Structure formats: C-alpha cells, structure tokens
Amino acid sequence: MNTIAERIRKQRTARGLSQRALAAKLGISRTTLISIERGDEAVTMGTLLKVMDFLDMTLETKKVVRLPADGVFTSRPTLMQIMAMRERGMFA
C-alpha cells in the first residue's frame, strides 16, 4: 500500500515536475516539498492539502496511509497518519 507521501511523489513525477518546479508553482520551499514527500510530521495540514489539491488528488487518495496493524505507534504518528486515523473514526 502506498502512503500519501509516495503518491504525491508519483503524481509529481508523472506530471514531469521536479521538486523545485512544483515548489515554485505552489509558492513553498523545496525543503517543504521534500518533507512532504518523506512523510515528515513537521508539515502543516494546509500545505499538505495545497500540494494535494494542485496534483488533483482525491479524498480516497488522502486516506491511503500505513497505520500499525495493532494500532500502537513505536514513535510519534505523522500528520498524515493522524489525518487517516481521524478519517477512519479512530479518534474524534
């Protein structure tokens, strides 16, 4: 299963955009885009959604995130994992 970060990278490359080009189009830094494509937790929800909207990613795409099978995280969950848990009703 692909994570949101992996799907964003695939959508970007499928459109023939470099990280630098996409970041410039969105008015964000290349470093921020790199963080998004790595699934880093330091990315704001607004920035993540801005990238996803630009790449025409659907709500279904946003839901595809790897979660631990037992529901227990060994480290802090990423923003994308928190979004997926919220969408699945795992917490309010």
UniProtKB/TrEMBL annotation:
CDD domains per UniProt: HTH_XRE
Residues of the HTH cro/C1-type domain: 8-62
Listed InterPro entries: Cro/C1-type_HTH (IPR001387), Lambda_DNA-bd_dom_sf (IPR010982), TransReg_Diox_bact_type (IPR050807)
Domain of life: Bacteria
Keyword Transcription: yes
Gene Ontology MF: a single term: DNA-binding transcription factor activity
Gene Ontology CC: cytosol
Record's keyword terms, sorted: DNA-binding, Transcription, Transcription regulation
The name this protein goes by in its record: Helix-turn-helix transcriptional regulator
Record organism: Igneacidithiobacillus copahuensis
